[in-house]
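Reading group handout, session on sequence-to-structure problems. Before we discuss, look at one worked example. The prompt was deliberately terse, the way you'd type it at a terminal:

> structure DUF1840 domain-containing protein

The input record follows.
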Amino acid sequence: MLYKFKSRATGDLILLNEQGRRLLQIMGKEPTVQGIVTVAQIPAAIAAIEAAVAQEEQAMRGAPRAVDRDASQEQDGAAADRITLRQRATPFVDMLKRSAAENADVVWGT
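And the output record:
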C-alpha cells in the first residue's frame, strides 16, 4: 500500500506503507486510508516529527560501538546503508511548511 499526500501548495508526495504509517503515528494521526492535517495542526505535526528525528539521532549517537575491528566495519557498513528518519521525513516536513505558508491543508489517501 502507498500513502499519497496532497496539498494545493506543493506537488504530491508518495510514501510506502511503512514510512507513511510511521509519520502519521508520529504526528498523532491514525494511519487510515484517508485523512487530513489541517493548517492549524501543521505546527504541532512539524514539532512532533522534528522531536522524533532528534530522538532517533540521539539514540544512534548513544549506540554502543563494537570493539572488534571486523564487527566495527560491519556495523559502520550497516549504518551507512540505513535510511534515517530525517532523510525520510525531510520532504514531508517541507510539504507541511510550504502548506502552512500558503494556508493549505495536507490530505492523504491510498
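Points for discussion. First: The CA atoms of residues 64 and 75 lie 10 Å apart. Second: The helical segments are 17-26, 42-61, 69-81, 85-101.
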